[in-house]
Backbone:
């Protein structure tokens, strides 16, 4: 599966400032929906665009926008998406990053920004994926345009690096996107993506979940499945299976298996054994949040098996990191340049 979009509104990303937004609002940059544009639709600002668009003639310094990542972490790719912007796309852009404490102001002139993508020409009406090699953990991005123009979306793909202080002595939703949980594989995603399963918010309609095609090979063990990995090994205490909004098409049963190992570079998750029983095959009811107590130690990932097909909105695994897992978190935090000081608030 793809890396997590750390800037998305799904995980709490926000566009906190911009040099100008005369034609298109800056907040659209982190909208999780795909950009949609209807030519010939006008309002008092001009043609309605689904993205951030500045006025003409930005001047020598170009335009800029600052994005607070919803889930701070290490970045691998920043996609500057100019779809539907052709005669009005920016000529080029650069991306800077910084790591700030929760209440620090990213617009303060004293903030030290680190270039993570040098000025690069942008293609019109296209995805523009820009590679990031700096391994540090960041909390904010600054998109600098060489000119004025319009950008539909900014996606910041990477890996969440959780703060180990926030995992110490508490039960954590270890499967959650905000905590480094990831959907690694699923058997089918005909109607909607399985990545919704680990989203932090409650589902808001039937499209906000994982729905597979209707299977025609029904048998006693016929099922769809999804693999969800954790940031570090954890001792599990509770599993939640939420079928909200799936009224006539929810999966009828579910079982959950765990693994105590991880993938290798050659085969990925394809040869990982899921041989630890977490939740026996259990009947589900439609359109309901269902909670199951469990007690399983040292789990690194889950294989959720949905019988025989259908829809599940969310899967939540709650637990505490193992002692080794907490040490891995602390090491990862230190290696990424995480601050040793905390003000007691969540990022």
Residues:
């Amino acid at each position: 599966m793809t890396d997590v979009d750390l800037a998305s509104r799904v995980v709490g990303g926000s566009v906190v400032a911009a040099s100008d937004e005369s034609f298109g609002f800056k907040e659209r940059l982190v909208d999780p929906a795909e950009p949609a544009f209807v030519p010939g639709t006008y309002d008092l600002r001009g043609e309605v665009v689904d993205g951030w668009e500045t006025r003409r003639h930005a001047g020598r310094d170009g335009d800029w926008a600052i994005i607070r990542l919803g889930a701070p972490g290490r970045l691998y790719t920043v996609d500057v998406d100019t779809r539907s912007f052709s005669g009005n796309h920016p000529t080029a852009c650069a991306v800077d990053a910084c790591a700030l404490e929760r209440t620090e102001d990213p617009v303060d002139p004293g903030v030290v920004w680190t270039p993570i993508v040098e000025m690069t020409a942008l293609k019109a009406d296209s995805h523009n994926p820009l590679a990031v090699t700096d391994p540090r953990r960041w909390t904010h991005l600054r998109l600098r345009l060489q000119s004025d123009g319009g950008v539909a979306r900014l996606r910041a793909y990477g890996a969440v690096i959780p703060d180990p202080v926030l995992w110490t002595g508490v039960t954590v939703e270890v499967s959650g996107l905000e905590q480094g949980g990831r959907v690694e594989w699923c058997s089918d995603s005909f109607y909607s993506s399985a990545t919704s399963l680990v989203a932090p918010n409650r589902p808001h309609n039937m499209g906000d979940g994982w729905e597979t095609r209707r299977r025609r090979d029904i048998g006693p063990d016929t099922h769809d499945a999804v693999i969800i990995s954790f940031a570090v090994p954890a001792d599990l205490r509770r599993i939640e299976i939420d079928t909200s909004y799936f009224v006539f098409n929810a999966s009828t049963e579910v079982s959950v298996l765990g693994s105590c190992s991880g993938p290798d570079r050659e085969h990925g998750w394809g040869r990982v054994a899921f041989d630890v029983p977490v939740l026996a095959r259990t009947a589900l009811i439609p359109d309901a949040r269902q909670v199951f107590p469990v007690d399983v130690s040292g789990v690194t990932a889950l294989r959720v098996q949905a019988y025989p097909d259908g829809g599940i909105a969310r899967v939540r695994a709650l637990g505490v990191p193992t002692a080794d897992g907490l040490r891995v978190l602390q090491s990862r935090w230190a290696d990424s340049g995480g601050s040793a000081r905390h003000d007691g608030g969540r990022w």
